[in-house]
What we know:
The strands form four sheets. This protein has a nine-stranded mixed β-sheet with strand order 4-3-2-7-12-13-1-14-15, sandwiched between helices. Strands 5-6 form a two-stranded antiparallel sheet. A two-stranded antiparallel sheet has the order 8-9. It has helices spanning 21-31, 34-37, 60-72, 83-87, 96-99, 131-135, 156-161, 167-175, 191-200, 228-232, 242-260, 303-315, 338-343, 351-358, and strands at 4-9, 42-46, 76-81, 102-105, 114-117, 127-130, 138-144, 146-148, 152-154, 206-208, 216-218, 268-274, 296-300, 367-370, 375-378. It is globular and about 70 Å long. α1 (21-31) runs parallel beside α3 (60-72). 50% of the residues are buried. The chain is of the alpha/beta class. Residues 375-389 have low confidence and may be disordered. A hairpin with a 3-residue loop joins β8 and β9. It folds into two domains: 4-175 and 246-388, Rossmann fold (3-Layer(aba) Sandwich); 181-240, Alpha-Beta Plaits (2-Layer Sandwich). Iron/sulfur cluster is lined by residues 200-201, 203, 205-206, 218, 223-229, 240.
Amino acid sequence: MSNEVFFGSARQRRLHSSETLPAKLDRIIERLALKDRVKGETVAIKMHLGGGIGYTTVHPVFVRKIVEAVKAGGGTPFCTDTPWAVLTAYQRGYTQETLGCALLPTAGLNDQYYKVTQEPYKNIKEWKTAGEIADATFLIDLAHAKGHPCCAYGGVFKNLALGCQVAEIRSQLHDVAHYDQYWFPEKCSDDATIQAIIDACPLNALVRDKDNPKNLHLHTEPCNGCGRCLEVAPAGSLKIDPVNFNSFQEACAVSAKQTLRTFDKEKCIFLNLATHITPVCDCFGMTLMSVLPDVGIFGGNDICAVEQASLDAIGKEKLILENMPGDTYQVQLDLPHPLQQIHGRYKDPYDVIRFAEKLGLGSSDYTLVDVMEEEAVTAAAGHISAAKL
Length: 389
Ligand code: SF4
């Protein structure tokens, strides 16, 4: 199968509805031949339906386009997300009436309907992939691109990695950051020094362990890897090590593999809407200002290619610094990707793709096809021509 990634830009060249994103999504769906591929299939449209009073998840107008295409092709679509998101989805405009199909919790209302697979990773002994996802015969991974405190970015991988596992495993996924030892108490037993290390962090990322105050606990989410704590910590007592950050991304790749293994390779489509890009995940239950300009929609058959194309395009934009939420972050403009500039040097948003390629989930090499230009831009080693974006 070709590694084309179809792209609809958020920008318009003229004032016409055909130049807007829902119309460009229609063209992407067409280029992916969705209608021809879903006859007789049970099609899971995996979304992140957000939480609380967030309002910048994928709008029902886009979802309906996909639902209608699946129905026109003779498939049976349903939209799905975690039970807690589905139960409150109506508050954010997602209902059977607005979407045009059933809206089901991925693992049943009690989060107990799942399929177990064995592929241990650090603290995660087994995977519990949501039953409704495992039962479906065709997958549409419909993601919203945004920032994320654990790994700088969330897109098509995170939508599956977190959203298709039950809550127990999602919790373990977040705990992988603590699997590799970073605090060595035998090298620092002095209480005043421990407090000085904690006080050195401008982002409150270091706290005392709740069970043993002589131990330090690192919250990797706010940590941006600035290293100020290391200037205070006695030699060998504390590590701020990439492994404690990128383990989350490797775990996400392994998790996504558990979902993808339940589908034939040609029965998966990946769509990523890179608009309203906020610093944190949609699960925060609120919407912040966009910190990057809207980029557009990406669609393809290869999860790695779609994620790479999305990240490359987002990476060409500049942070809108005045839209950052107060003094929550200390932006590091010397880092290569704008989302890394927010979240820190050890949160390389491309890591998940590298890990996934090693697992055989796809390839980051891609050809970007602008569905309005009808011409291909060949990507060289995963990097695309700036002229087309
Ligand atoms: S490296 Fe992380 S934990 Fe240490 S001071 Fe900087 S932000 Fe805080």
